[in-house]
User: Fold this.
Amino acid sequence: NAGVTQTPKFRILKIGQSMTLQCTQDMNHNYMYWYRQDPGMGLKLIYYSVGAGITDKGEVPNGYNVSRSTTEDFPLRLELAAPSQTSVYFCASSYLQGNEKLFFGSGTQLSVL
Amino acid sequence: GESVGLHLPTLSVQEGDNSIINCAYSNSASDYFIWYKQESGKGPQFIIDIRSNMDKRQGQRVTVLLNKTVKHLSLQIAATQPGDSAVYFCAEKGTDKLIFGTGTRLQVFP
Assistant:
């Protein structure tokens, strides 16, 4: 099992550019999440999904969009990149409801300049 | 509101000693708590969890203690090894989402 796979690992964007962070999991987990981690800070929930076709906002959803067309994939879209979106992004999945025992990907380090 | 904090941002311990990482939480209604370990350049990795109906839970070399009276959570690592060097996060399950603390960096020196 690969677990949770994120691509790319690093990316530099210019202000106003758009990009999609990819996330896929092969554990057949229903629940998937996107977090951002700013330096010296804890993880903040951006969006989450309880199953294919269902998504919901987390604590910091502004500037992001998600979709969940399959159980395996949960891409995160930045439409107009801003410097405030410079962060490390982690995708996670869980078998259990309510964010319990999350399995995290290795992260995408994004810089917006 | 909900918040999770840590008493010490950095903890330095000698190899072989026991480590204790502390965490305070504010929501007395939280019923589930987790500790994660994050090594440099990697995603957080689940270590151990505990439910609010328990005071203590043990894993391999790790023990989590929960004191609901003072809303305090701790992670004890026995015989700390260089591979334990990482940032450790506690998280509490609030209404329906996890709230993460800012993390404690554990440094292990020979």
